[in-house]
Specification:
CATH architecture of the largest domain: Sandwich
Number of domains: 4
Number of helices: 1
Oligomer: single chain
Structural class: mainly beta
Strand order of the largest sheet: 1-9-8-11-6-4
Distance between the termini: 98 Å
CATH class of the largest domain: Mainly Beta
Shape: elongated
């Protein structure tokens, strides 16, 4: 067991401390004789439970080499208790004092001889109540004292926390119908002789509860544990510790664990809740019929043409968290694919219903479909007519001829001219609807431009035309730009 140091006071008791059912502790008027359990070797042996003892530590001493695990300044005026349980159990230990300074309470496990053979389990810096898991035939020591003040009356109470009803394998809670939910306090849970250790449990295993489920039909079931501390869960088949076969182990906070079960077979769920230093706490165990997965996908580009390679992405979700063994695709044009991220290119425009079927590793399936609209929009600047030459002050016509062989489109054409910085300035913009025209026919966009003295000084004007489809993506935009020049005198 790992040592845990608690330095935060849970509550403080001044000169008088009242304990329900235990009476009232009052500070002594005069110092008492040195307590009989002042020294470690004379520790009061706790031989039966429940146990309660009141001792005056006013004249208690501290031995040379005595441990002081969480005290600064060191612990003083200590008294000692020991207990060697005959079976695994969880103990509740309460210490109450008549003086606030009586605020040190440490639990040790004996691993050797003397002070050097003590391993700290819990160290409390204020009077409080703690739960501690203990193991059969192992000796534990309780050290009580203070680090300030003159001492006073201390009361120690030790009792066993009863184990839950499903603590033992033979008393596993029977799950008769799904969904199933059960809340249990694992604080008093124990280990049986020969009990298996879950492969994913944090060592050492300290206390478990058991559930049993015999399904009427075959299928998948999912379990989860709700708790505020780490848990572990192993699923077995078999009839006793001697012949259990482990199927799956899972741990964590509210994680889902799914297994396939066969009708008529009994499955055992062994659950451990660790809590602080393994003393457990309240957990909720859930078991449900595993829901089917949810199939879903998306693709890009969302407006594909016959020139695009469409990338598909599987976004399916498995609530059982088993994962997907296969993803089968039907692209709607007579072809199929597999995997999470297939690609496909369509040969012709059309509306294609794409289907995805996913199958989990335990055989659950789901399907989804979407319509992919393949439309190849494409226009091109087939003609760009500018005057070969012009003079400053002349206004001349410029024509941009746009071809369209697929769908009627609304097209915007921008006319620009080069500037001295190497860029282009806009001359004009025209937007109009154009029909589908086969062969070499084009739809003209007519502009006019008046040449300037600056153009004449340069001696040449470079024009650029850019055609853009409105409301759609051009599949081949490389032929939507044209450049031509005019000599200016």
């Amino acid at each position: 067991m790992k040592a845990v140091f608690r330095h935060v006071s849970l509550w403080r008791i001044p000169v008088v401390a009242a304990v329900a059912g235990l009476g009232v502790l009052a500070a002594p008027a005069t110092a008492s004789a040195q307590p009989s359990n002042d020294n470690f070797t004379n520790a009061t042996v706790i031989s039966s439970l429940p146990f309660s003892d009141i001792v005056d530590n006013t004249t208690a001493t501290t031995e040379p080499g005595e441990p002081s695990s969480c005290s600064s300044p060191p612990i003083q005026q200590t008294v000692w208790y020991s207990i060697t349980p005959t079976s695994n159990m969880t103990l509740k230990m309460d210490m109450f004092g008549s003086n606030f300074s009586n605020g040190l309470f440490t639990v040790y496990q004996q691993t050797g001889t003397g002070f050097g053979g003590l391993s700290t389990l819990i160290c409390e810096t204020s009077v409080s109540s703690v739960n501690v898991r203990v193991f059969a035939n192992t000796t534990y020591y309780i050290q009580a004292g203070n680090n300030f003040g003159s001492g006073g009356l201390l009361q120690l109470n030790v009792q066993q926390i009863p184990p839950p009803a499903n603590d033992n394998f033979a008393n596993a809670t029977q799950i008769t119908a799904l969904p199933f939910t059960d809340t249990v306090d694992t604080s008093g849970a124990t280990l049986e002789p020969g009990e298996p250790i879950p492969s994913c449990a944090f060592p050492p295993l300290e206390g478990t509860v058991w559930y049993a489920f015999t399904p009427a039909t075959s299928g998948s079931v999912s379990s989860s544990i709700d708790s505020s501390f780490p848990t572990a869960e192993e699923v077995y088949t078999g009839t006793s510790f001697a012949n259990l076969t482990a199927l799956q182990c899972g741990g964590g906070f509210s994680q889902v664990h799914t297994i396939h079960v066969n009708a008529g077979n009994t499955y055992y769920f062994q659950v451990e809740g660790f809590g602080l230093v393994g003393e457990g706490g309240t957990i909720t165990f859930n078991l449900v019929t595993t829901p089917p997965p949810t199939a879903n996908f998306f693709f890009t580009p969302f407006d594909p043409s016959i020139f695009d390679t469409v990338q598909f992405f599987d976004q399916s979700f498995d609530p059982g968290q088993v994962g997907f063994q296969t993803e089968a695709w039907n692209f709607g044009d007579g072809t199929t694919g597999t995997g999470s991220f297939p690609t496909h290119r369509y040969a012709a425009d059309g509306d294609y219903t794409v289907g995805l079927t996913v199958t989990t590793f335990d055989g659950r399936t789901a399907s989804a479909s979407q319509v992919v609209h393949v439309r190849t929009h494409d226009v091109a600047i087939a003609k760009f007519t500018v005057p070969t030459s012009a003079s400053a002050g002349q206004t001349r016509s410029i024509t941009v001829g746009v071809s369209d062989k697929r769908y009627p489109e609304t097209v915007q054409v921008q006319l620009l001219k080069g500037n001295s910085q190497g860029g282009f300035d806009q001359v004009g913009t025209l937007t109009q609807s154009i029909p589908v025209q086969m062969g070499k026919a084009t739809t003209p966009f007519a502009f006019s431009y008046t040449f300037t003295q600056d153009d004449a000084a340069v001696g040449k004007v470079t024009f650029e035309a850019i055609a853009t489809i409105q409301g759609a993506r051009d599949a081949l935009p490389a032929d939507n730009t044209a450049i031509a020049s005019t000599i200016v005198h």
